[in-house]
Amino acid sequence: MKAKWLLALPAAVLACGILLVACGGGGSDESEPHRHGNENWEHEASLADMPSFLDKYSGRTKHLYSIVGKYEDIMQMINCYCGCMKYEDDPHSSLLRCYVAGKDDTGVTWTDHSGQCGICTEELAKIEEWSKEGKTPEQIKQLIEDNFNPNA
Amino acid sequence: MNAKKLSIFFGILAVLIVALVVLNNLKPDTVYGKPSDDLYPATREILNDPNYNNIMLPDELEEKLTNKESFFVYFFASDCPHCRATTPQLKPLADELGINLHQFNLREFDTYFGTMNIEATPTIVYFKDGVESDRLKGGLKESETTDGYSLDDFKAFFEKHKPEGND
Question: Where would one find the signal peptide in this protein (chain A) (predicted)?
Answer without folding.
Answer: 1-22
